Amino acid sequence: MFEHTGECKTHSMALSTVVVAAAFWSLAIVILGASHVTRTRTHRTADVVKAVLSPRNTEHTAEIRSRVHPHEHFALTPSSAILDPSRHDSFVQDATALIASVSPQQCAGWQRFVKCAEKCTEMFLPSREVDFAAFIQSVTFCIIITGFYGVDPGTLSPIDVAFVTNTLNRHSDSTSRQTPLYPSELDAMRERVCRWVGGERAPQALETILPAYESMWRLTAVTLAYADGNQHMHNAFLDFSENPTQKQFRSFKVKNTRPSVEAIISEVLRLHPPIQRIARKSRHPLWKRLFYPAQEIADIGAVHRSCVYGTRLETFDAMRFHPQHEHPVDMQLLAFGHGGLSCVAREWAPMATALIVAKVVDRVDDVGFVLAGKVFDARMYRNTRIGWDGWVVRKKEREKLVS
């Protein structure tokens, strides 16, 4: 009997050992699997999105990845360099200095930027007809590179500018983001940009130009589409073209019954933020990865269409940004992020984009040149990179004299 009891105990201990070992390896497999599977959580409410966009206690590497993630598919910089804090800090400082040099607070720099906008718009006006999106892309790229780096617009070949913008655009849509630029394409773009910019700033110029170009050409195109056929918006931009000051930018029209240029740009940013969804990549200790997502997504588009921005949220209504509107906006726009990780150009980009729009409106005036396209519908144009088929800028033919 005692021998039988001993055998039972031995069998029980062996079984317990097997169970513990199985539990251990099961947990190890689960943890290992969790470390390799990207888990994503999407946030659509205003307060949570703001918290995601401005996280606390973010390590430097995670902060860098949060900044570069929207454009990392271009692979302009080696991954080892992207995560180098000193390289990243230097890039942010350089970009901030370039923006400050052409901000409205720097009178001479802003006036130079205005002249660049005028010359670049004139440069790309067609002899007969040009695709609207291609026109805006070339004008925007030209203005950014000449404004930031003091390049003479006359030294830029329209064919070379078109090559750069076309290459960037081909790798901006969702289908082509899976593959980086071909080395030959990247080298060809860098060669052109370095030739135009020159000096020690040339090697990093493309990285600085890209995010500004990516956001501003689409914002410019959409704003022009809304202004087309709307006389009040058209007049507001003509006034701003003639007097491109901060006061004019912020002035509401017709005894405060019509929107300011700033309000128009803000409403475009509300309905069509440059980045609809901002991803934040995070790093957690191994044991926490079961409980925290590897990536959190802030759905900017969803928040901008929520009740904190008033009523009739799918309708373009720039007057919602008037402080005395019956349903005024309760929260600052999140189009350029929020908090410490927000875009370095958040203060400058809206007014700079408005200037580009104003100069195009001034020249494409239904007298010498016309903009022809479909009626713009805010509900249909969530992806503002596409949808421009049939939109053209056309030189207006002079009426034949009747003998």
TrEMBL record:
Record bears the keyword Transmembrane helix: yes
GO molecular function, one term: oxidoreductase activity, acting on paired donors, with incorporation or reduction of molecular oxygen
SUPFAM superfamilies in the cross-refs: Cytochrome P450
InterPro entries reported for this sequence: Cyt_P450_sf (IPR036396)
Coiled coil: none
Superkingdom field: Eukaryota
Gene3D superfamilies: Cytochrome P450 (1.10.630.10)
Annotated TM spans: 12-34, 132-151
Key words of the record: Membrane, Transmembrane, Transmembrane helix
Name the record gives this protein: Cytochrome P450
Organism listed in the record: Suillus placidus
Lineage: Eukaryota, Fungi, Dikarya, Basidiomycota, Agaricomycotina
